[in-house]
Amino acid sequence: MSIQLNIIQISPFVKFNRNGRTMSTKIWTDANLLTMTDGDEPYGLMKDATLVSDNGQIAWIGRRNELPDHFIGETIFCRGRYLTPGLIDCHTHLIYGGNRIDEFEKRLQGTSYEEIAAAGGGILSTVKATRASSEDELVKAAQKRLKSFVQEGVTTIEIKSGYGLDVENEIKMLRAASKLGRMSKIDVIPTFLGAHALPPEYVDNREGYIDLIINEMLPAIERGRLAVAVDGFCETIGFTYGEMEQIFKAATKLGFKLKLHAEQLSDQNGATLAAKYGALSADHLEHLSIKSIKVMKEAGTVAVLLPGAYYTLRDTALPPIEALRKAQVPIAIGSDCNPGSAPVLSLKLMINMASTLFKLTPEEALAGVTRNAAKALGLDDRGILKEGYKADMVLWDIEHPAELAYQVGGNQTLKVIKGGDVIFERGE
Predict the structure, then answer these.
(1) Cα–Cα distances in Å, from 312 out to 111, 181, 343, 361, 411?
(2) 63, 131, 160, 300 - which has most CB atoms within 10 Å?
């Protein structure tokens, strides 16, 4: 199963060749490129470089004095600034109704995340608010959140459902995600998260809800081409290994890619399950075992870390970073934007948190929101600066690459570029 990603190109500089046809070629020169490709140079650094974008892709990249003469187009002088791939947020719950400010206060007073969920709060409180919201209301609220991400360099974002928990409302959420993608200037990657929590009407009928997901939700979403991947919450307050395996088997037969919330609050062997079914990623992973790391490596499953949730919930169990490094499991970073455990509207801040809280190097953190984030979404056409890849880029007002992890707060973006076109620009 495939789905067409939304790409809207807006060019303020339309040019024409001698035949009267438009020219989309742009020459980005006098730049320091952080290509994020594997190589001897940290960050894949290419100094005093030029990049040519054409028809939404990178047509050429190299030293400034080596630019071939046949490239003609608008020239943008970067004045020695750093140009990186566009940022990719590979894990969000951006679309939802209401908020959970009251739960934030309860946690500060000592109530645990699990206790709030057991009392009918948590995910279920957002389910109630989301069900009560129209599709247009969900889109309007999400637009405001998305704007914050775009202005900080995000050019591709994943959005999960999971606050509807019935056929009608899960479809409503995914349609809202699709509409948001069409209205925005970036790519929205939709993920179905029906196995997020048990809805109130199925509290005493877990088997019935699993059947609903498998026999009604998944087929309807596949017919409507509403999602790329299927996700779930494998946890003591979510779904068991066996329940998720049933869902994964059904999703695989329908051609969906797989992802999984795993090992956030406890070790349920969710990451092992994800790897068993060739999932794109296993996400959270504070309680990840060495055994699961081994099978993730063998399966090519990306480890997605979510420092915003770790911070908000004041967790103390750190993901096994050194073991992931040793096993050479790709590490990605997501915002986990959601109203409860991660009210985060800044992927840029997550670069800092991944470095400060999880002790990733600044280079690892940047790879986590570019190259490895693309892998976590199964996208092989972005995340690095290389000929043939999408011309999704960010021009930064920084003096050193590590500054992207070092600085807390403030917007360091000068230009956000999607498919070669500037979609956000900040004056100096």
Answers:
(1) 13, 28, 8, 22, 22
(2) 160
Q: Model-level pTM?
A: 0.93
CA–CA distance from 131 to each of 47, 128, 180 (Å)? 51, 5, 18
For 252, the token pair is 């695989």
With vertex at residue 99, the alpha carbon angle to CA 170 and CA 104, rounded to the nearest 5 degrees, is: 125
What are the CA-CA distances from residue 178 to residues 65, 184, 334, 349 (Å)? 43, 10, 20, 26
Strand partners for 74: 26
Task: Average the pLDDT over 304-313 and give the result.
Answer: 96
pLDDT, position 428: 66
Nearest to 51 by CA among 31, 36, 70, 65: 31
Question: Could you give all domains of the chain from N- to C-terminal order, each with its CATH number?
Answer: 15-85+384-425 (2.30.40.10), 87-376 (3.20.20.140)
pLDDT in tens, 115-171: 888 777 888 999 999 999 999 999 999 999 999 999 999 999 999 999 999 999 999
Give the pLDDT confidence score for residue 12 in this predicted structure.
Answer: 31
Lowest mean pLDDT across 3-17, 296-310, 385-399: 3-17
Residues 175, 135: contact at Cβ < 8 Å? yes
Question: Which is it for the CA torsion 96, 102, 105, 106, positive or negative?
Answer: negative
